[in-house]
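Record pair follows.
FIRST:
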Amino acid sequence: MTLHSIPTLETERLILRAPSEADLDADTAFFASEASKFVGGPLRRDEVWRVIASILGHWSMRGYGFWSAAEKDTGTYVGRIGLWFPEGWPEPEVGWTLMNDATGKGYATEAALAARAHAYDVLGWETAISLIDVDNTASKAVAKRLGAQFEYHYEHPKFGKSEIWRHPAPSELVNGGMEAYA
């Protein structure tokens, strides 16, 4: 097994840092809520701990993964955003999950732009998807703001019918797609 250091990314309002056990209380509250149904919830605290461990393991095995996003001004943890491609996933993904009190502020779009730019500019990805629950209108709106377009329905073996949203290729973006935050 190879251990990879997790880079820190910064956007205008957020710091994307390594996930840690310090995120457990906020994640546990989120995964006890109705909103978690779109990302495999609800989950018990011990299951949430395993999710964090899985995210860290993804970094170790793939060299990329989800970051924990925190507000620059307050340090408040607002969610996880990043790159995901575990075994059995259809394609490399840009994904996001925000804590309930962090929605509606543009954080998912801001952080996902940074994550996608990292995927394209640092990792050399030529394409990316976002896999979104068919009923998750908020995530579909984020995908649209990122320039992604619905491509097809995908039957996820655990989560059921989902939608694949295709992000613009690197060649289709100006400034790695970060122009909105430059």
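SECOND:
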Amino acid sequence: MNENDIVRFVSGLPGTLAVTAGADNGAPEAAWGDSFFFYDPEGETPPDRRMPFATLVVKDYEGFDTASSLNRPGVFRLNVSVGRARFQQLLGYAPAAHPDHHSGIDYTVADRLLPHPVYATQGWISILNPGEATGSQARALLEEAHARAAERHRPRR
């Protein structure tokens, strides 16, 4: 899977709004080139109220998010909000326990399911350059995250 494959796949999920940050949409320059995927079927959610269910990041955020070394040529990171229970199923420990595991993880390894280096405690996972080992799993996790976002989007009764 390359970046375009992921954007096409996620954009094809019903009600998904895909935004690639750039000068044309007023995004902060630090985010330019990164893609954010929101569930917003009516297109009525104000941009400052949207929460992505997945992101595609193509570079390091200096001083904040550099553990994956995304500034290497051809390297990108898919990030997916899987929730706390699914995170524990996938990684074998609760998101709240991630600080105890953080130092032992090599976040630069491609095609492997990893906790997100910054947002693991919120139930986010990441995969650098999903490929043969993780491509199918990445698509399934994106579909699950989309379904969770759709469920949260429903009006409360």
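COMMENT: The beta strands are 16-20, 35-39, 54-57, 77-81, 113-115, 124-128.
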